[in-house]
Specification:
The complex is a heterodimer of chains A (100) and B (732). With 100 residues, chain A is α/β, with parallel strands linked by helices. Chain A contains 3 helices and 5 strands, in the order ββαβαβαβ. Chain A has one domain: Transcription Regulator spoIIAA (2-Layer Sandwich). A 5-stranded mixed β-sheet of chain A has the order 1-2-3-4-5. In chain B, a hairpin with a 2-residue loop joins strand 14 and strand 15. The chains are: A alpha/beta (100), B alpha+beta (732). At the A-B interface, helix 1, helix 2 and helix 3 of A face helix 16, helix 17 and helix 18 of B.
């Protein structure tokens, strides 16, 4: 499970690769912790290489969305695969995030 | 609508009332009219007879009176005869006669012409009463030639006495006179003179009118020529008398009075004062040729009738009033009755709706018909439109929840309690799988505000479909039967019915149903069903009916219900159903299919173990050739379930095992998670609300939600201090 965070033109890009299961949730959560401190920066998370996500992964995304929203930042998810999109639909997350 | 209808019905009844009243009034008037007419005829007939009698009697009275006069006069003939030789003494004789009798107006002795040659041809000593003065003189002269007088000639020729026609007194025109004339003879036996005595008729009038049938009636005496001899005194009478005389003389001209020999009646009207009346006149032999008449006035004759008519009218009015009152009352009652009928119809239709609602509350067998491991059939036959029995069954998380209950009493109150109990059963068992706890919750609600002291006997069972484990709790209900190799009642701890005691503790009991076994539940409407001779169907017959179903491969739910229904109906044989009858049958047939995959993995309660788990699940789904999407869904569900156990089963810092067994037959894959941690039933966790906004949305709480949504079924059991969670998914 890899979590790459890059900054470009004052915007942050996160690339998640691999399977975000419960075993890897803590690791991803820690990697993304700095993003919670950002202010006035939108975050785009690229899920093109994310194969799987468990509810622990959904928690991390929801927590990030909550802290970004409280500062007026946007969180955009893109390139969700169909299975993950299905999980998003099932859980109602699809309505919470901006999805490209 | 109702109001308009009411008004028209009220108007209709008013119209009917008025019609009845008018008809009754017309009938009453007609009857009283006929009666009056008949009575009038009767009175008239009676009056005619009475008048005839009266006239005959009065005629006899008159005859006697005038005979008295004539006899008295004739007896005094000697007085006249004695003085014949002394013509001048005859003046004194006439004077004495008049003086002695106040009824005599005058007396004359008309000598046969030339009887006293010295007195000339005519000689007539005469005494006249002129008021108080009595004058005596010689009346005859050439101008007053008595020998040409009709009466003189008659009396002289016949030598007999006679009564003259009445005539007016020359002095007093109001006084009518008649003259009695009789011959007297001298010593040689020759006729010497005709004595005439003038009588006022007043005394005869008084005699006639001394007594009357009616106050205004009066009698008249008429001469043979139809002239009035005497009439009663009084101005009023006189006025009518003239008219009556005209009437009588008119009628006399047509029918001879004497010839008829019978009473003649002439009715008259249009006179003042006494508008109508009748004259009855008659010529009795006793006074022939005189006639006697009586005049009666209708208002007096028919006075009793008129009085009766008023009384009748008053009575009729009173009768009509009473009738009107009765009609109004009965119309009111009728309206009330109609209204009550309408209300009853209304209630009936509402009851019908209530019945439909109640029946719709009952579960459908189709729900379990889709499954191959159990089949449930129920039947409810309320004694009235609605009933107080209930049964329910549904499947949640691979458990069959079922109950049967009987609310004390019948009808609407019982139905209301039944509906509440039914609803509560559903809502409580949506998140509670322990029948004793469900019972407990039902009891608490039932005890609140139970002022009507309604109670409910109830049996609740939860059948774990994968294992056949049956957990149940009985609250005073009839014990169900288990029908298998043998047929016996389930042992049940005696608990009080619901609604009796709010701190009652209900405890759970457990047994295992084997494949092919059935459960049969019923209410006391079955065992207490009565036939015409008040015998009860009884438990023995129930048991026999169930036993008869064994061994014929027919102990299916439908067959059990059908057999029992037929038997109880045959037993009751048309007797009135006294209680609601409810039956519920559950046939349990879990399908054991050969496993093509079975592996077990043991993990410890650490998050890092998830990697092992996922690899284990992946290998299984790969072995079963599942497509990636489905495989990932299954992996996610299992990971969530296991994560839950890692998070909650064991206290922080303690290590514990989690066993994961994966079983699969050719169509289904099953995961069985077993741990020895604290009791945790994930099926009781309520679903996450996926409609909340970012801010409202809690972090977490999605695990069980995902498991439920990704798997076909989940099923939790706590057995021997272990949590056992089963999850199943069809994969081909």
């Amino acid at each position: 499970m890899n979590t790459n965070i890059t900054e470009k033109d004052g915007k942050y890009f996160v690339s998640l690769e691999g399977e975000l299961d419960t075993a890897h949730a803590l690791e991803v959560e820690q990697a993304m912790q700095p993003l919670h401190e950002l202010s006035g920066k939108d975050i785009t998370i690229d899920c093109a290489h994310l194969d799987y996500i468990a509810s622990s992964g959904l928690r991390i995304l929801l927590a990030l969305l909550k802290s970004a929203k409280s500062k007026g930042n946007k969180v955009v998810l893109k390139n969700l695969n169909d299975e993950i999109k299905e999980v998003f639909k099932m859980t109602g997350f699809i309505d919470l995030f901006d999805i490209e | 609508m109702g109001k308009v209808k009411n008004n028209t019905s009220q108007n209709a009844s008013k119209r009917v009332s008025i019609a009845i009243l008018i008809t009754a009034a017309a009938l009453m008037l007609l009857i009283s009219g006929i009666q009056q007419n008949y009575a009038r005829k009767q009175i008239r007939n009676n009056l005619e007879r009475n008048a005839e009698m009266e006239l005959i009697i009065k005629a006899i009275d008159v005859r006697h009176s005038i005979e008295d006069v004539s006899l008295a006069l004739r007896n005094r003939s000697w007085e006249f005869e004695q003085f014949l030789p002394y013509p001048d003494s005859l003046f004194a004789v006439t004077r004495r006669i008049v003086e002695q009798n106040p009824n005599f107006a005058g007396c004359c002795i008309a000598m046969v012409p030339n009887y006293y040659p010295e007195k000339g041809r005519l000689f007539e000593p005469y005494t006249l009463r002129r008021g108080e003065v009595i004058e005596t003189y010689q009346l005859a002269s050439e101008e007053h030639d008595y020998s040409k007088n009709k009466n003189f000639i008659l009396a002289a020729e016949n030598g007999s006495s006679l009564w003259s026609e009445p005539y007016h007194d020359e002095e007093d025109l109001d006084v009518m006179l008649i003259t009695y004339a009789f011959p007297i003879y001298d010593a040689y036996g020759d006729m010497a003179a005709i004595v005439g005595v003038d009588l006022s008729t007043e005394w005869i009038g008084e005699l006639l009118n001394a007594r009357h049938m009616f106050p205004s009636s009066y009698n008249l005496l008429l001469s043979g020529e139809g002239r009035l001899i005497c009439s009663p005194n009084g101005e009023k009478k006189h006025k009518d008398v003239d008219q009556i005389m005209v009437l009588i003389n008119d009628s006399t001209a047509k029918h001879t009075i004497s010839a008829s020999g019978r009473i003649t009646v002439i009715s008259f009207d249009d006179w003042e004062d006494h508008a109508k009346g009748s004259v009855y006149y008659y010529t009795p032999k006793s006074i022939n040729p005189w006639s006697i008449a009586v005049i009666n006035y209708d208002d007096e004759v028919f006075a009793p009738l008129i009085k009766m008519r008023w009384k009748n009218l008053l009575l009729t009015l009173a009768g009509l009033l009473i009738l009107a009152f009765i009609i109004q009352r009965s119309a009111k009652n009728l309206t009330k009755l109609q209204r009550a009928n309408l209300e009853r119809e209304h209630i009936d239709s509402e009851l019908n709706i209530a019945r439909k609602i109640q029946m719709e509350m009952l579960p459908k067998s189709e729900e379990t018909a889709l499954r191959d491991d159990c089949f449930v059939v129920g039947s409810l036959d309320p004694a009235k439109m609605v009933g107080g029995d209930l049964y329910d069954h549904f499947i949640r998380d691979e458990k069959l929840f079922f109950c049967i209950g009987d609310v004390s009493g019948k009808g609407i109150p019982a139905a209301l309690v039944m509906a509440v109990t039914h609803t509560l059963f559903r809502s409580i068992s949506a998140h509670e799988s322990n029948p004793a706890r469900i019972m407990q919750a039902l009891n608490e609600t039932a005890c609140q505000r139970n002022e009507q002291n309604m109670f409910v006997t109830m049996f609740i069972g939860v059948l774990d479909l994968p294992t056949g484990r049956l957990r149940y709790c009985d609250a005073g209900h009839d014990k169900p039967f288990v029908i298998g190799e043998e047929t016996k009642q389930l042992p049940a701890k005696p608990h009080l019915p619901l609604g009796v005691m709010d701190n009652m503790v209900y405890t759970i009991q457990e047994t295992v149903l084997r494949s092919g076994e059935s459960l049969f539940l019923y209410t006391d409407g079955l065992t207490e069903a009565m036939n015409e001779s008040h015998e009860q169907f009884g438990l023995k017959r129930v048991e026999k009916g169930l036993r008869d179903c064994i061994g014929k491969e027919s102990n299916t739910s439908e067959n059990l219900i059908r057999t029992m229904t037929n038997r109880v109906n045959a037993f009751v044989d048309g007797a009135e159903q006294s209680d609601d009858l409810t039956l519920l049958a559950i046939h349990y047939t879990p399908q054991e299919k050969p496993l093509i995959f079975c592996e077990t993995l043991t993990l410890i309660n650490k998050v890092s173990e998830i990697t092992k788990l996922n690899a284990f699940v992946k290998s299984a789904t790969a072995a079963l050739n599942m497509e990636t999407g489905l495989a990932n869904q299954i992996k996610l569900a299992v990971e969530e379930a296991v994560t839950n156990v890692i998070d909650y089963a064991y206290p922080n810092g303690t290590e514990g095992n989690i066993n994961i067994t994966i079983e699969a037959d050719e169509s289904r894959i099953r995961f069985i998670l077993t741990d020895s941690g604290a009791e945790f039933d994930p099926t009781r966790v309520s679903n996450a609300d996926t409609t909340l906004t970012v801010d409202e949305r809690p972090i977490g709480g999605l695990g069980v939600f995902l498991v439920r949504n990704l798997m076909d079924s989940i099923n939790y059991e706590r057995v021997d201090g272990k949590n056992i969670l089963r999850m199943e998914k069809r994969y081909s």
